[in-house]
Amino acid sequence: MKYVLVVNDITKKYSAFELKPISFHIKSGEVMGFIGRNGAGKTTAIKSILNLVHPDAGNVRILGMDYLDNEDEIKQRIGYAVGGTNYYKRKKLKDIVAITRIFYDNWDDESYRHYLDAFKLDENKKIMELSEGMKVKFYLTLALSHHAKLLILDEPTSGLDPVSRDEMNEIFRKLAEKGVAILFSTHITSDLEKCADTITYIKNGELLLSERKEDFISHYTKEIGQKSTLEDIMVHIEREEVNL
Q1: In this structure, are residues 135 and 164 in contact, taking their beta carbons and an 8 Å threshold?
Q2: Considering the domain boundaries, does residue 46 fall inside one?
Q3: Is there a domain that residue 66 lies in?
Q4: H or E stretch covering 61
Q5: Where is the ABC transporter domain (predicted)?
């Protein structure tokens, strides 16, 4: 299997926003930074990929299978986490886990205990008692406890302090080394400098470029005319249409 995730011309149209055809692919052990400013369409694209909103056109293949035709089976093998969102905030972690494990045929208690210890999570705490960083670690623990081969993370470092973000980026790299594919949506370019292998840039609902990070930076460095960081590139792209 060459690619873990293949997205082919996904589109979604609302009255005030249109996601134009989006296509990209992710390999096993690869971290893709899905980048663009707030409102660019990153969340719409992710929800369309996962059929959380029904795309108007296009198709998605995950782990070699058509997503719509094999949605239940594929969900057993992927993880999805959103930063800055609280689920069951008054429930203890162990109570959420007791419910969650029922839905996964390959839930692994040994893996759950491993990540619980690795992330220093106290399962007797309530969600509302966790820091933003610990919440993200808990959602990752749920995904990794059923051996997810693909993690789709929508702004997972949103609201985290720089130290916590750096820690999460290190976790993403270690997971990638174990063969987990990660789609990492963010507008925080410094995170991607540290952990991304590839960059996919979206602006106003349109995919501009999807390339390996070095090639992406090289492409826009030539356009800008000087050595550039991802932050420089983002500012360049988003300021093109500003008229003062």
Answers
A1: no
A2: yes
A3: yes
A4: strand 57-62
A5: 1-229
Tokens of residue 44, six digits? 């719409």
60, 61, 62, 63 alpha-carbon torsion, rounded to 10°: 180
**Cα-based distances in Å from 201 to 34, 146, 198, 224:** 6, 30, 10, 16
- Where residue 198 sits, what CATH number does that domain have? 3.40.50.300
Dihedral sign (CA 170, 83, 27, 33): negative
Contact (CB, 8 A) for 161 and 131: no
The token duo for 61 is 């293949």
Total domains present in the chain: 1
pLDDT digits (tens, 9 = 90+) for 33-83: 999 988 899 999 999 999 999 999 999 999 999 999 999 999 999 998 876
- What residues make up the domain containing 14? 5-77+149-239
Q: Does residue 84 lie within any of the structural domains? A: no
